[in-house]
Amino acid sequence: MTAPHSDFPVILVEDDEDLREAIGVTLRLNHIEFVTHQRAETVLPLLQPGLKTVIITDYRLPGMNGLDLLRLATKEIPDLPVIVMTAFADAKLAVEALKAGARDFLIKPFVPDQLIEIITRYRAPQLASAKTEPQALAPTAKETPEPSHRPAPEIIAVDTAMIHTLARCERVAKTDTSVLITGGSGVGKEIIAHHIHLTSKRAAGPYVALNCAAIPDTLLESILFGHEKGSFTGATKSQSGKFEQADGGTLFLDEIGEMPAPLQAKLLRVLQDKLVERLGSPEPIKVDVRIIAATNRNLEEQVKEGRFREDLYFRLAVFPIHIPELHKRAGDILPLAEFFLKRYRLNIGRDDLVLGSTALAVLPTYHWPGNVRELENIIQRAVLLCDGDAIEAEHLEISPLASSNASGSSLQSRENPQNGTNIASNSMTQPNVVGSASDMNSVEREHILKVLAQVGGSRSKAVQILGISERALRYKLKSYKEAGFEVDK
Prior knowledge:
The chain is α/β, with parallel strands linked by helices. The protein has helices spanning 17-29, 66-76, 91-99, 112-130, 160-173, 189-198, 217-225, 242-245, 261-273, 299-304, 310-316, 333-347, 357-362, 371-385, 393-396, 440-454, 459-466, 470-482; strands at 10-13, 34-37, 55-58, 82-86, 104-107, 179-182, 207-211, 250-254, 275-276, 285-286, 290-295, 319-322, 354-355, 390-391. The chain contains 18 helices and 14 strands.
């Protein structure tokens, strides 16, 4: 549903043209009106009392930087939500931004849902207050829980493996049972978490998401549990944490395996007692929150290695849900591709654009190391590369190194053992495999190194194509280097 005209536009300040357009696509897809600026200086005349907006600003800008804009904006309009973005996971910068009044701190690259969740959280209260008289006070979160304003995610489930996963979601959704979602990077864990919330009895309450790996350890406790004014240097006002913000609803803790040990103990106490203590306050605050956690790590192994608390693991994993990797739900590949094509062709006004026969033949044969996120990225790129009426194989730019002839692929069971024909793709010819790969790890390694070489060694570009996090890429490259493979280009 398109945002009503009375809704104020979000202000996006980003000098990088590609990133500005990418964020703009995300906002348009979620029906959020916005205006863009390339410099902070052009925003300053807008900072007048009564301004209703959410500012999303990059830290590094030509001229005035994002922190300077943040300070001036919050000085003129103390309650104005400002979100600072940066490509560098700098704890000192994050502390400085939050001390200066930033509502959130986003480390690039971030997933679109993370940005939309933040915007809707801070935008909804302003919309509510904008409809009241100037002297009226908006109800507090305790009196009226903030509803989940985000649109329901559309889930494609044609393959039996994914249908089984959704059946488990429906079974647990109506309860308050803690859920642990597992699966590789890019499979859609956050979408499943939001789906569980929207089909639960808490659907009218807030849905709050936190990526535990995206926040510096020094800030995570304050962001999760909140703090009181004066509790640490620069804490000029009290701030509620994610637990309080999610009261009456659902708190989604992504990448829970990255949470440091001291916070694991405090999180366990909150889950047991349903009480939160802000930093600097001895007074406990009662919260009613349903926890959904997610990880792409093997938490059982981390428990054995002493890196994750066993008691916390059992508290979180009361009802585990595993999302299969995309190559293990091969029946969903083409429906997902069609879904993403429909989404991105609308952005450029090309409703007649379709998937051609060669693209339809190649897509099911690819291994998809980046899962659904990689598929979305490839379709989005293909829409931009295609000048004709049909997207063909060359527009996908899929490396044949990652085709699914390797052992372990879900397509392997579909091959006719007598003649090797892939009966799942109507006998269409598979692309030739360049080189050999003895297992899925080697297929993934070859694909990642190939992509990295194609982008001249740029890791930021590589993660966008691969659909994995920068942290995951660093880990994989480190393991490749230790195994004797040439990594640095």
